[in-house]
Write a structure and sequence with these properties.
The protein is an alpha/beta fold. α4 links the parallel β1 and β2. α4 runs parallel beside α7. It starts with 7 loop residues before the first helix and ends in a 7-residue tail after the last helix.
């Protein structure tokens, strides 16, 4: 394994590795006091993430544009950051009806490292570069690293850029960052309550940013109507029930009528809504959706009002 390790002093200068003055007496706190401190620090981290909202929106637009143009999206990271990427990628297909390969994750150290730490994987810049070089020019690599200096992620971004792929970096690092990606989303969360444990507030802020990027991108792609996930895939009893409730809410009917609309539409949620709202047949509803590129609001038409 080829590995490039950062200079020892670099880690000491990272805010995410610093000692938090608010938690110096962590080991003396009662359990309620420790919990209150941890949650308050998470709140502060989310405030930091909200300050980066303009860059988060830029990343969301980039992700949506790549998907609209037929490209794929890869979330890549090591440790907690990598696992958050895995979680985000896993949730997108059932929630938004995407094929599994359109948004996927790469974890430093491979699939086994999702569950067990793999020593040295995050330091392997060459392995990261190889992952990045596997992308196509119309794909997007989203590198995730709390510290901003993880060699595996830096290597992957460099490899992706060498292939002409779009790139984004999500990081909790403070200070001026080099232009290692097309979009750099920095939301400095500062020192952790437990020194260096970026699974805590850095992880919370990173998950919030990932949630915002993917959800805003899917809104942009027309996979949301009002605040309803109208491309949800009914792959479980819970999601079958949710599909019925979504149709009922969007059309303004009861659960039994929603189930009938879904059955008539072959289980296609958007088709069922168009049929119910416009009083047309499933084939005509599908054609309206085709012409509107799957955007339910446009398929319903400007003159149609909800009951």
């Amino acid at each position: 394994m080829s590995a490039t390790r950062p200079a020892r002093g670099r880690w000491a200068r990272l805010a995410t590795e610093g000692r938090n003055p608010r938690s110096r007496g962590l080991d003396t706190l009662s359990t309620p006091a420790a919990v209150a401190l941890l949650l308050d620090e998470d709140r502060r981290a989310l405030v930091a993430a909200s300050r980066a909202s303009a860059k988060v929106a830029r990343a969301a637009r980039l992700l949506a544009d790549v998907l609209a143009q037929g490209g794929d999206v890869v979330f890549l990271g090591a440790g907690t950051s990598g696992r958050l990427g895995v979680l985000e990628a896993a949730e997108c297909p059932p929630t938004f009806g995407l094929e599994a390969h359109r948004i996927r994750a790469v974890m430093a150290g491979g699939r086994d490292a999702v569950f067990l730490g793999r020593e040295g994987a995050e330091d392997d810049e060459a392995a990261g570069r190889a992952e990045g070089e596997g992308l196509r020019a119309h794909d997007l690599l989203v590198g995730i690293t709390a510290s901003g200096v993880t060699p595996f992620v830096r290597g992957a971004l460099a490899g992706a850029r060498s292939r002409g792929a779009s790139t984004a970096l999500l990081t909790c690092a403070a200070g001026r960052l080099p232009a290692v990606a097309d979009v750099v989303v920095a939301f400095p969360t500062g020192p952790e309550v437990l020194t260096g444990s970026t699974r805590l507030k850095a992880g919370s802020a990173t998950k919030a940013v990932l949630n915002a990027i993917t959800t805003a991108a899917m809104v942009r792609l027309g996979k949301v109507y009002e605040n309803l996930m109208v491309d949800v895939q009914p792959t479980s009893a819970k999601l079958v029930d949710r599909s019925r409730r979504i149709v009922a809410a969007a059309v303004g009917v009861d659960a039994a009528a929603a189930a009938q609309l879904l059955a008539a539409a072959g289980g296609e949620l958007k088709t069922a809504v168009v049929v119910g709202r416009l009083g047309i047949g499933p084939d005509e509803a599908r054609e309206r959706l085709r012409r509107s590129q799957g955007r339910l609001r446009q398929a319903l038409g400007p003159s149609r009002r909800r009951p």
